[in-house]
Amino acid sequence: MESLNSLMDGFGTALTPVNLLWAAVGVLLGTAIGVLPGIGPAMAVALLLPVTYGLEPTGAFIMFAGIYYGAMFGGSTTSILLNTPGESAAVVAAMEGHPMAKAGRGAQALAAAAIGHFTGGMIGTMLLVVLAPTVASLAVDIGAPDYFALMVLAFIAVTSVLGSSRIRGVASLLIGLTLGLVGLDQLTGQQRLTFGSLQLADGIDVVIVAVGLFAIGEALWVAAHLRRTAGRPVPVGRPWLGREDLRRTWKPWLRGPFLGFPFGAIPAGGAEIPTFLSYVTEKRLSKHGDQFGKGAIEGVAGPESAASASAAGTLVSMLTLGLPTTAVAAVMLAAFQQYGIQPGPLLFEREPELVWGLIASLFVGMVLLLALNLPLAPVWAKLLRIPRPYLYAGILFFAAVGAYAVGGEALDLVVLLVVGLLGLGMRRYGLPVLPAVIGVILGPAAEQQLRRALQISDGSVTGLVNTPFSVTVYAVVLLLLLWPLLRKAVTRRRTAA
Amino acid sequence: MTTNPKGRLRAPSELGVGALLFLLGVLVLTDALTLDVEVTARGPVGPATVPLLVGCGLLVVAVLLALDVLHGGRGEAEGGEDVDLDAPADWRTVLLLVGVFLGFAVLIGPLGFPVSGALLFWGAAYALGSRHPARDPLIAAVLSLLTYGVFDRLLGVPLPGGPLMGVL
Questions:
Q1: How many contacts, defined by CB atoms under 8 Å, are there between A and B?
Q2: What Pfam family is a match for this entry (chain B) (predicted)?
Q3: Can you tell me whether residue A371 is helix, strand or coil?
Q4: Does A78 contact B81 at a Cβ distance shorter than 8 Å?
Q5: CA A6, CA A13: separation in Å to the nearest integer?
Q6: Is 80 exceeded by the pLDDT of residue A299?
């Protein structure tokens, strides 16, 4: 009940005309950027970060929430009309959505996706309202060793759950941790990896790393391999659903969130796994199973709803534990750090106006998203025709604006370019980018918790595992690490039997 | 190991990734070992501990990656909406873009954002293959002025106006 009252206060914050305006601007900008081919939600959020610099934190995060949901919806539009998913979560949307678009049912596919996003986001955010304060109050008592264990879990999960090669994931993580080391040591003020440079003593700004790896790295990588003939988007009219379609989609919409939300909250790669699980579930439950692969509307509705709910799940661990589980959450955490706000169990006590305003604006943002995107879909579809040279020149342009806006220094632009070239190299050799970003953002915090924990235990390593919570987390870590071996053993037994 | 010419060409270049990681590890370790630990150490874990761990980790990963490559493991180049992996890499475009970007970093101070930003967009679009003598610079100028106006005036994010804004 208490959280319901807080939520009402949050609506008071979110529904002021100014904040409503920021939410609307965020949704529009997020959708517009997310629709652009080649730009996934993480890059959209990183590129739009500087837009919020001049705002006070509450307005900034309200706008941010709009950008997040808008970019996710924009990404599915691209998948459906162009068959080119910008990020892994939208792969599933393309599998059924694009055949539908080609068969002249693009309007229905977009409507199923939009309403799926709305339903999934609504249910997911309601679960967030119910669960987040509970998680936060449970987490208030956890100490340095527990935090360190959680961060180790995030590191291991991001390197071993995602991507095809663990060793390349670990390499990426270590690169990120190294970048995070640059600057003054937080406890003793000693210079590390600064090579005597005054600018580097401040450390490398997380925003510059995120923009460099996501935006510059991607733009340069595409430039090296630019497709000379861009894909042709399928033209589309105003989205709508007939009665028959509604009968087929309402259950997938409602089922999706219960797969999406839990997977979003744990460090397991965000929407990738739940969208796929939802797809498989809908395929099995559908009476039109034979249509799957050729444009079954259930295969758009369920996964899109799951993806949206997983975004809400991501926010639970991000807000209550300060633990980013996806690339977007990592960039959002960086945004919090810009304002000197540390997400964690105390956030709900210290910044109730900000947190509940943010959560309430998620509801507002979703209503705006649905109201704006159904009528505007044909306009968004036009954005898919943007000439590629302008698109990638624009990405470089706005990345430069963002990096310069951080501190007003031309040197930051050079650092951005170097990080971007690193991102280019990582894409070339199959090193995933996300572990590096997580390493930069969580590395310094993990070091602090480690040193704090060992200070309390006076240097004894047992100080890291002296709580039931941390032991449990390490058990999960061990399970993740041994999973490939376990799976091999299981399949071997099965083939033997 | 594969015998096709592409495979033979790629193995050495990917070994370079391992070599770079190794060098990075050595760099981190040397930096950590030259830290002045004794004077300011507070608590049992000083400022050098984590860099030492990261540095050793880098060395181990470098070796493991090299072994993986020698056993035929290959990093999967990232695909994407506008990425055509079958075509050979076009490094000339990348170099041009890097040059344009560095030019922007140099010029933003003396020329201000509106002019240097327009040059950045125009130059990047040209490098990426756009050849419209009138449309390209026009879009660049409008985009740059608009961005300056929105960020500097509306959103309160300061960008340098430069001599152009002094005149206008």
A1: 237
A2: TctB
A3: helix
A4: yes
A5: 11
A6: yes
Instruction: Write the residue in A171, A190, A421 that is nearest to B40 by C-beta.
Output: A190
User: Which residues in chain A touch residue B130, judged by CB atoms under 8 angstroms apart?
Assistant: 387, 389-390, 393
Q: Contact at 8 Å (CB) between A374 and A114?
A: yes
Q: Please give the residue of chain B at the shortest CA–CA distance from A399.
A: B101
Distance, C-alpha A181 to centroid of its chain = 24
Contact A49, A331 (CB under 8 A): yes
In angstroms, rounded to a whole number, what is the distance separating the alpha carbons of residues A443 and B76? Answer: 26
Closest CA to A434 of A205, A170, A247, A178: A170
A101 Cβ contact list (under 8 Å, min separation 6) = A80, A81, A109, A234, A236
Q: How far is A25 from chain B (nearest CA, A)?
A: 12
Q: Tell me the three state secondary structure of residue A191.
A: strand
Residue B49 is which amino acid? T
CA atoms of A70 and A49, how far apart (whole Å): 14
Counting as low any pLDDT under 50, the low residues of chain B are: 1-9
- B125: its two tokens: 């679009």
Task: Read off the tokens for B133.
Answer: 């003598």
What is d(CA A237, CA A30) in angstroms, rounded to the nearest whole number? 21
In 3D space, the residue among A320, A85, A49 whose CA is nearest the CA of residue A208 turns out to be: A49
Confirm if A267 and A154 have CB atoms less than 8 A apart: yes
ipTM surpassing 0.90: no
pLDDT digits (tens, 9 = 90+) for A194-211: 887 877 888 888 888 888
pLDDT, one tens digit per residue, over B37-75 is 655 555 667 788 899 999 999 999 999 999 988 887 777
Structure tokens at A292: 């799957």
Average pLDDT over chain A, rounded to whole?
A: 84
Question: Could you give the CA distance from residue A412 to residue A420 in angstroms, rounded to a whole number?
Answer: 12
